[in-house]
Each structure stands twice: as C-alpha cells, then as structure tokens.
Amino acid sequence: MAAKFLVFCGLVSLASATIKLQEIFSWNVVDWNYPDQFSKQQALRTGALIPENALPVGIERWRNKLFVSVPRWRS
C-alpha cells in the first residue's frame, strides 16, 4: 500500500513538473482601499498598516473574479 502511494506521488510530481504555467497578472505591491487618503496615511503613520508585512498566500478564481487572501501574520 505504501509503495503504491509513493509511486502515485512520484507520478503526480513528474506530471506537475511538465506543466508550464502562464503568468497573466503580477503585482509588485499589495495595497488596500481606504475610504480616503487621510485614513490611509494615519494607518501608515501609526503602524496599523505595514505594506511589507502583506504576504498573499491564497489565490482562487471564481468565474471572472480573482480572490487573494492575505492573512495577518503580525500586528
């Protein structure tokens, strides 16, 4: 049973290594939509928003929408 599982994992990894992904979108920075510029500047000044701490870890596509999850790793 374990040998079959290892062979299966090997075949899956081999098949996934041959698939070439096409980059459609890319971002250098993730930004948030604040109600106004003053609120955003205040969040930056107080440390409530630290753009460098934003690490997108999950991306899902549903119909014509793209959802990006950015968990809060730090305060």
Shape: elongated
SSE ordering: HHEE
Strand order of the largest sheet: 1-2
Number of strands: 2
The quaternary organization reads as: single chain
Category from helices, strands and their pairing: alpha+beta
What's the N-to-C terminus distance? 45 Å
Please outline the helices and strands.
Elements: H1 2-18, H2 37-46, E1 58-62, E2 65-69
Descriptive labels:
6-blade_b-propeller_TolB-like, 75 residues, alpha+beta, 2 strands, two-stranded antiparallel sheet, elongated, 13% strand, secreted, signal
Give a structural overview.
By secondary structure, the chain is of the alpha+beta class. The chain has a domain at 27-74. Strands 1-2 form a two-stranded antiparallel sheet. It has 2 helices and 2 strands, in the order ααββ. The protein has helices spanning 2-18, 37-46, and strands spanning 58-62, 65-69. The N and C termini lie far apart (45 Å). It is found in: Secreted. Residues 1-17 form the signal peptide. This is Protein yellow.
Provide a compact summary of the structure.
The protein is of the alpha+beta class.
